[in-house]
Amino acid sequence: MKQLKRDEIITFLIFTFVGTYLCWGILALSSRSILNKSLYSNNSLYTFLRILGASMPSIIGIIVSYYFRGKVGINYLFKSLMKWKFNVLFYLVAMFSVNAQSFIIGVIYNVLGGNTKVIINTSQAYLFKTNSIIGVIGLFVLIVLFGGPVEEELGWRGFLLPRLQSKFHPILSGIIVGVIWAFWHLPMFFIKGSGYEGFISYLIVTIILSLEITWLYNKTKGSLLIAILLHGFDDTYAVIFRFSLNRVSNVVWIGIIFIAIIVVIDMLKKPLNKVVLNDI
User: Fold this and answer.
1) HSE on the CB side for 147, CA within 13 Å?
2) What distance in Å separates the CA atoms of residue 269 and residue 171, rounded to the nearest whole number?
3) 212-229 per-position pLDDT tens digit
């Protein structure tokens, strides 16, 4: 307990994982009839437990910030959320996340004679018709607010990343967050119908996405807003494009890894560009 009181990061991770694994673990066990099947089949309960589990990083991030640093900790956290005045190009960059890159590379590859299967969902997703701009915008807003970005990013990038960057290089910090982020999602791979498959490919993509968010977060001097937007765009593309990275061609993999290498090279430039807790 003394260690928990001293270490913000360990405290945050323990309570975040316990809270999420409890919620999603119930759904996983219920979906496989180990627990009462009604816990999984009841749409309202399923949605509640899924969203509550997804919200743990942000909920625990806020609580632990207040516990260790009081109002100052909360101000640090929400100040980063309010950072929106930066070069408009960074907003555009946020739109080209890993899933967008994969789609673009796949299309180019197909035009050049390759064969990468990418299905574009132009019918409906979460009650929004994806064949119209208004429908896509509505889907994006829904995903940002309830699909993960807001529920997670106050924890991953708002709380965890600046504390890691106080100790490590941004590249290592981004990789650490990516690994933690991927394993935090692990229960979803055991929930039937969750849409999660291929953990190894998911781990690789999550690390790459984490590095890109880390890069953009530091470029915008600690904007949690840009992290939420990039996360939201990536999740929205996953619904619209409806393809699995572990099933696309090696050319697509090479393309997104190449882009990630460019990001890493830029992060190695001097002077070191990173945002730590006291800079927020």
Assistant:
1) 21
2) 11
3) 999 999 999 999 999 999
**How confident is the model at residue 173, as a pLDDT?**
97
Residue 130 pLDDT more than 90? no
**How far apart, in whole angstroms, are the C-alpha atoms of residue 230 and residue 98?**
10
pLDDT at 110: 79
**What is the C-alpha separation between 101 and 205, in angstroms, rounded?**
12
Give 211's pLDDT tier (boundaries 50, 70, 90). very high
Q: Indicate the pLDDT class of residue 58, thresholds 50, 70 and 90.
A: very high
Under DSSP, the state recorded for 272 is P
When computed from its CA atoms, the radius of gyration of the chain, rounded to whole angstroms, is 19
Q: Using CA atoms, how far apart are residues 5 and 187, in angstroms rounded to an integer?
A: 28
Indicate the SS3 state at residue 13. helix
For residue 111, the tally of other CB atoms under 10 A from its CB is 8
* Minimum mean pLDDT range among 92-96, 103-107, 166-170, 188-192: 103-107
Q: Please state, in angstroms and rounded to a whole number, the distance separating the CA atoms of residues 155 and 103.
A: 28
Q: How many Cα atoms occupy the beta-carbon half-sphere of 232 within 13 Å?
A: 22
The Cα–Cα gap between 116 and 84 comes to: 37
Over range 129-156, report the average pLDDT: 92
Two tokens, residue 161: 């990343």
Query: In the predicted model, what is the mean pLDDT of the chain?
Result: 90
What is the per-residue DSSP string for 141-208?
Answer: HHHHHHSSHHHHHHHIIIIIHHHHHTTS-HHHHHHHHHHHHHHHTGGGGGSTTS----HHHHHHHHHH
Contact between residue 21 and residue 187 where contact means Cβ atoms under 8 Å apart: yes
| C-beta separation of 19 from 59 below 8 A | yes
Q: Residue 125 is encoded by which pair of tokens?
A: 């997703």
d(CA 246, CA 163) in angstroms, rounded, equals 32
